[in-house]
Amino acid sequence: MRPTTLCFPINAAGEFLLGRKKRGFGVAKWNGFGGKLEAGETFRQCAVRELREESGLVAKEADLELVAFLDFRFDTHAELDHIGYVYLVHTWQGTPAPTEEMEPRWFSAATLPYEDMWSGDRLWIPMLQARRKISGTIVFAADKESLKYTEFTDVADLTESDSLTAF
Ligand SMILES: Nc1nc2c([nH]c(=O)n2[C@H]2C[C@H](O)[C@@H](COP(=O)(O)OP(=O)(O)OP(=O)(O)O)O2)c(=O)[nH]1
Predict the structure, then answer these.
(1) What does each C-alpha distance from 93 to 10, 60, 63, 89, 105 come to in angstroms?
(2) With CB atoms 3.0 to 4.6 Å apart as the test, which of 23, 50, 106, 121 could cross-link to 15 if both were Cys?
(3) Nearest in space to 86 (alpha carbons), one of 3, 27, 149, 19
(4) Which residue's CA is the closest to the ligand 1 atom numbered 6?
(5) 93 C-alpha to ligand 1 centroid (Å)
(6) Is the interface score ipTM higher than 0.90?
(7) What's the pTM value of the predicted model, to 2 decimals?
(8) Which domains can be identified in the chain, with CATH numbers?
(9) Which residues contact 79 (CB under 8 A, 6 or more apart)?
(10) Helix or strand or coil: residue 118?
């Protein structure tokens, strides 16, 4: 699968904006806003575009704080393997609006709906809430849902890799 981006808008109260996905990969799950890189796009361009398309929020590339690099692997479905860059978004224009793809809602840090999120999220999202920057590997089992293996490393600094935009 193509490389992906994922944005989590955070408001002044520290709440996370999540959207409940109405279609596609991860349907019915709550998640941040993101999707696959399009040809010729940089990761930040993709992140800004997906955030706007899925939540209605308009952010500038410079307002995205890169906080994680995640390597998603599928034990028995290698065609689904992909990487993702994760951003926190502190500044934007507009207000969250439901779209045909996503229904947005604010959640306090302590009440994220992990039971209706990707199964690895409860492991790494709290690291981001603790203001850590991480690089991680998440291996899903044959059911494409449960976790087979995870590994997370703190990193001092993160930069998008240009080589990953060639696909
Ligand atoms: N929180 C979380 N997000 C994940 C995980 N795995 C994973 O791909 N994502 C994110 C990365 C992307 O933002 C999104 C997958 O991309 P997508 O299928 O929605 O891409 P898209 O919008 O371009 O595709 P589509 O709607 O046209 O099918 O899900 C995970 O384990 N946890």
Answers:
(1) 13, 9, 11, 11, 16
(2) 106
(3) 3
(4) 72
(5) 23
(6) yes
(7) 0.95
(8) 4-161 (3.90.79.10)
(9) 1
(10) coil
